[in-house]
Design goal:
Length: 193
């Protein structure tokens, strides 16, 4: 059966690794005023300035995924919740809600057109693609280039979502863990197997 879509959907948190209790808690981090768009379900990184930005395709200071933001609108002066952090937002109190647990498992669509079982245990970087109006949900995918060397994401298996589990067709999703996670530290990071 063909997959429901070939458009990426960013990183969907699905469960904790090792069946730990998944309370879906979010941590708060600052976003700099007038920064670039951060899409919903986008992989984010922590900068040296202590703020979050969308992660690039090979960034290593990954923190988790954006679930939304809160800020005081600079024009209307009203408190505002949003699923994404708008580009060029001049508010000075932007708080991002980040799923930052290093043991979180995500589903992310693959940029590959077919899956080989030997990719489980390998690592790959993301292919970043920002969301578009009206919802600004990330369209990022996991790269088709996998290896047993260090990269952003560790492949744990194929999605169990029937809409994205046909590995013979484009549009399948993989279960991944953020391997280059800033809260884990470089000394404990491992390459794939």
């Amino acid at each position: 059966m063909a997959n429901a879509s070939t458009t990426g959907f960013g990183f969907r948190p699905i469960k904790k690794i090792a069946s730990n209790y998944n309370n879906a808690a979010l941590s708060e981090y600052n976003v700099a005023a007038s920064s670039a768009l951060i899409s919903h379900a986008c992989l984010v990184r922590l900068t040296a300035d202590g703020v979050v930005l969308a992660s690039g395709n090979t960034d290593t200071n990954n923190l988790g995924t954006l679930n939304g933001v809160f800020y005081t609108d600079a024009t209307s002066n009203k408190p505002t919740f949003s699923n994404f952090s708008p580009a060029s937002n001049t508010a000075t109190d932007i708080v991002a809600f980040i799923n930052d647990d290093p043991m979180q498992m995500y589903e992310v669509m693959s940029a590959d057109t077919a899956f080989n079982q030997n990719e489980v245990g390998h690592c790959a970087d993301q292919v970043n693609d920002v969301g578009v109006t009206p919802l600004f949900i990330s369209k990022s995918k996991i790269s088709a280039t996998t290896a047993n060397t260090q990269a952003q994401l560790f492949i744990m298996g194929v999605s169990r979502d029937p809409d994205h589990s046909d590995t013979t067709e484009e549009g399948f999703a993989l279960r991944v863990q953020i391997r280059e996670h800033i809260l884990v530290g470089n000394d404990t990071q491992r390459a794939g197997i």
